[in-house]
Amino acid sequence: MDLKAREGTTETSDTIQEEVRAGSLFPTAVTEEKLREARVRSLRWIFTSSRLFDPPESRRERPELHGDSIIRRRAAEHYDRGLEAMSGAQWAQAVTCFSKAISLQPEQARLFVCRAESYLQLCDFQSAALNYRRAWSLQPESEAFRCRLGFIFYLQGQCLFDQGLYLDALESFAKASELIPDNRSYHMRSLACLAALGQHGDCLRLASSWLETDASNPDLFVLRARLHRHFSQATLCYRDVKAALAVAPEFQEARRLLSELRGVAEGARERAVSRAVGGQLREALQKINTAVEHDPEQSHYYLFRATLHRRRRDFNAAIDDLIEVLGRGGGEQAEARRQLALTYNDFAVHCFSRRFYQEAELLLSKAIEEEKREKGLYINRGDCFFKQGEWTFALADYQQAEEMDPEDRAVWNRLALVHNSLGLLEYQDRKDQPVADRFSLAIRYNPGVSQYFENRGKARLRLGDEEGAKEDAITSLLLDPSNDQVLALLSSLFPCCPIPDILSSESAGIARARLESSRQASLPRLERNPPKSSPEAEPGEESEDSGSAVRPCVAQKDLYQEIVASTRKANAAVKGALRHRATLRHAGPRLSPPAPAQPEKPPAGEEGRPYRWRKFSEGVGPTFC
Question: pTM of the entire structure?
Answer without folding.
Answer: 0.62
